[in-house]
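Lab manual, section 2.4: Encoding a predicted structure.

Procedure: take the sequence of the chain (352 residues), apply the prediction step described in section 2.3, and record the output as structure tokens. A sample record is shown.
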Amino acid sequence: MSQNQASSPAGTKPASAASRIAALIPGILLCVLVAGVSALLEHAELGMFDHPYVEALVMAILLGMALRSFWKPAPRWQAGIAFSAKQLLEVAVMLLGASISFAAIAASGIALLASIAAVVVITLGVSFGLSRMLGLSTRLSILIACGNSICGNSAIAAVAPIIGANNDEIASSISFTAILGVMMVLGLPLLIPLLQLSATQYGILAGLTVYAVPQVLAATVPAGLVSTQIGTLVKLMRVLMLGPVVVGFSLVASRWQTDAKKTSVGFFRLVPWFILGFLVLATLRSLEIVPATVVGPVTKITGFLTVVSMAALGLGVDVRVLANVGGRVTAAVTLSLMLLLGISIALVHWFK
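Recorded output:
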């Protein structure tokens, strides 16, 4: 009898693990389906306009929100949607480190590196202050500040799990930031004749102000190869700021937790596993232990996992919540972008 009792818990563990995995499948497949449709729509844009104005990442969250507006997922879908929104996003953030090379960043010069860091820090602080003045929550203000200051949707997606942002806060910040991101791509080239910018100056300006790397390419290709190369390099250096910013938020995030949770916080709670993975992969890439041939496939996997996660976030968003904060979020994002553009214009006139 005792042997049966001893063996029964062990016998139930595989079944329990299998049942948990099975419970995730419907929701994950739904998110993958939404992500696949978003990728097809982005591909259609690419064929029609030579570059996508609305990325699959943004398309996924909008499609998820649209689906959620007339269909509330039943409980059988919830586990997989939650897993896609959190765990898959954390894996994507970790894999992002494989595309970062510290050597390429250092080769660009101390002056430009210091300037980019200063722009990011100043914009982070002022954007956060503006958002709080407009009555937005602390977490939403942080997401808006990071999105505008660093790399748009990718920064929002990376910081969100660190600060415990909910789906509505993530969707609000991404949706409104995405709209202005597209406007920047379309309007920024108009500043070339207006401000009499050289190819180098415009490349720096685009790298400092445009949110996503593909959008930088779209904004700089009309200005020539030099602008495209410089804009991409500056943008990658700006993306690199995401690492220290995320680690910094990891160190202070415990202050927003309840007293019960604070007692159990250790190193791996302060610095989550996927941030450690990000730094390890970035170091291995810089040491060329991770070869350049791997970067392309890993980047594609990272991008698709992020799109799947954004689909999950969209599926968990109540559009009525966005309507309640829409005006304030729009004002915060717009003012933050104007600040970033003003600082960047002043800076590029220093680089002849």
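Check your result against the sample. The longest helix spans residues 2-49.
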